């Protein structure tokens, strides 16, 4: 193989490696972003579950009070 052909192949391989490195960097950034979003959503879910439990407790207390009032009338 002549030297020019070898240099062209080496340059092609170097270009491909650089493309793959760029893609790996983009995927790592996307992965980081998705993990942050997941953490945020899990926090929001936890907050909503707590609020739901509070609301359920309040509704149950109101029902108990209404039943108590109903029995006393």
Automatic annotation (TrEMBL):
Keywords (A to Z) from UniProt: Coiled coil
Chain coiled-coil ranges: 3-72
Listed InterPro entries: CHP02449
Tree of life domain: Bacteria
Protein name: TIGR02449 family protein
Organism of provenance: Lysobacter arvi
